[in-house]
Amino acid sequence: MFHSTKTRKLAAVIVLSLVVSISAACGASTRTSGQAAKPIDAEQVQRVEFLNQIADDMYKQTMDGQVAEARNKLQQMSDQIPKIHFEGITSVEGLNALTETITEAKRVYNAVNYSPDEGQVAVAKIRLATDALTHKNQPMWLQYYKVLQNDTSLLTQDLKANKQNEMLTDFGKLSQHVAIIHPAILISRDAGSVEKLDSLLVFLHKYINEKPMAVNQVESGLGHLHQVLDELFLKNKDAIAFVPITDPRQPIIWSLGIGLIIVSVLSFVGWKMYQPGRSFVPVKQTREGKNR
After folding, report:
1. Residue 211 to residue 223: CA distance in whole angstroms
2. What distances in angstroms separate CA 115 from CA 35, 65, 133, 139, 247, one per listed residue?
3. Among residues 197, 257, 256, which one has the least CA distance to residue 224?
4. For residue 10, what are the CA distances in angstroms to 5, 19, 266?
5. CA 127/CA 139 separation, integer angstroms
């Protein structure tokens, strides 16, 4: 009798705990849904589109060697940012990525000795970032899927041939390509998903550099890299499970996904160790045009 009563109490506590957890998740999901459903002011949409147009002009001028004109466009963009309310357009992480990208570009364009290569990389990052703000479904940075797939394929070939020096070179190219689209990805995707990519790059960099190279760890990291890229580029049908904010109707999946994100965040060292190199893949001047 006592054992039965104790069991029932324990079961009641467990059920209550589950109800509280699910209610909290549902509440958070409802709030998120409410925020996502909040209409974006038409004036803000126009300002973001104007920002994107400025970035496009700046890109063309930079590629044409009109540095002074491009610098003026950069300042114009910087002046426009405080006038825009980004709620409903991108996340806090996305906004921070945009402002940091513009700040970095200012250092490049205002340097005593302007570097054309660095200027082209900086403006490519800005161009992709502003496009991501205005094209939610088909941003231009999705063009980089094949580029990154090619990078990872080269790394796999290097690994099979045990060519460590070549791997270091090819990994540098991969890192630079990711750096160019990194602000745009943060604008378009959940920050936790982007951090998983960052963590993998740090992991690969560590074990590719080991003497001798840690083959098993690198092979495992490359396998996970393919999966994460598919998730970010929405090539994987299950990728939506890693972006809970976009599906508020499934609060339980959202709650369970938090654990996965926390694990990835704990291993995240930082993006600062990766800096753009000298070569890069240019972006389109127009969405219909060809790459320059």
Report:
1. 21
2. 42, 11, 27, 28, 44
3. 197
4. 9, 14, 33
5. 11
Cα(284)–Cα(11) distance, integer angstroms: 60
Q: Which two tokens stand for residue 230?
A: 């598919």
Q: Are 204 and 269 in contact (CB under 8 A)?
A: no
* Residues 171, 145, 93, 30, CA torsion sign: negative
Could you read off the pLDDT of 196-218 as tens digits, one per residue?
A: 999 999 999 999 999 999 999 99
**Consecutive H or E run containing 204:** helix 191-208
Pick the closest to residue 124 from 87, 70, 188 (CA basis).
70
Position 39 scores a pLDDT of 61
Task: Determine the Cα–Cα distance for residues 230 and 99; give it in Å rounded to an integer.
Answer: 27
pTM: 0.69
Summarize pLDDT for 93-125 with one digit per residue, the tens. 999 999 999 999 999 999 999 999 999 999 999
> What does the pLDDT read at residue 19?
38
112-127 burial: b if 16+ Cβ within 10 Å, else e = eeeeeebbbbbbbbbb
- Specify burial of residue 6 (Cβ count, 10 A radius: 0-12, 13-18, 19+): exposed
Give the span between the Cα atoms of 166 and 65, in whole angstroms: 33
The CA–CA distances, whole Å, from 152 to 137, 170, 219 equal 25, 8, 11
